[in-house]
């Protein structure tokens, strides 16, 4: 699976690909993913599973766009759910940055 991931993403950076392959393997070989077992909900993957409106998601082309949308929509963090969502967006921003680097 790792070799296929490296080929699909035109990358030789196997430590980065390993996290994606491990996540896929963990979900496919168990009744639920480790994330589900720990938090009791399915893992939210990608921006489409975020609470950002589709019109904002459609305009995003870079990590800066994501951060601007995040700052605009979450100006104050009051609850633990907001904090978890903030952390989630941070990791999504890292994923976008990684994908942009792979394409260049």
The total strand number stands at: 0
Large-scale geometry: flat
Q: How far is the N terminus from the C terminus?
A: 23 Å
Radius of gyration: 15 Å
Low-pLDDT runs of 5+ residues are none
Strand content: under 5%
How many individual helices? 6
Structural class: mainly alpha
Helix content: 55-70%
**Number of separate domains:** 2
- Biggest sheet features: none
Overall pLDDT, averaged?
75
Q: Write down the secondary-structure element order.
A: HHHHHH
Briefly, what is this?
By secondary structure, the chain is mainly alpha-helical. The chain is built from six helices and no strands.
Helix and strand topology:
Blueprint: H1 2-8, H2 14-28, H3 34-39, H4 54-59, H5 63-73, H6 80-103
Helix pairs in contact: 1-2, 5-6
């Amino acid at each position: 699976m790792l070799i296929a991931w490296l080929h699909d993403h035109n990358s030789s950076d196997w430590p980065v690909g390993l996290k994606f392959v491990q996540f896929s393997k963990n979900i496919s070989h168990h009744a639920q993913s480790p994330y589900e077992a720990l938090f009791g909900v399915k893992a939210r993957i990608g921006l489409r599973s975020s609470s950002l409106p589709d019109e904002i998601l459609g305009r995003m082309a870079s990590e800066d766009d994501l951060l601007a949308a995040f700052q605009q929509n979450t100006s104050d963090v009051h609850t633990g759910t907001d904090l978890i969502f903030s952390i989630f967006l941070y990791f999504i921003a890292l994923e976008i940055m990684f994908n942009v680097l792979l394409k260049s």
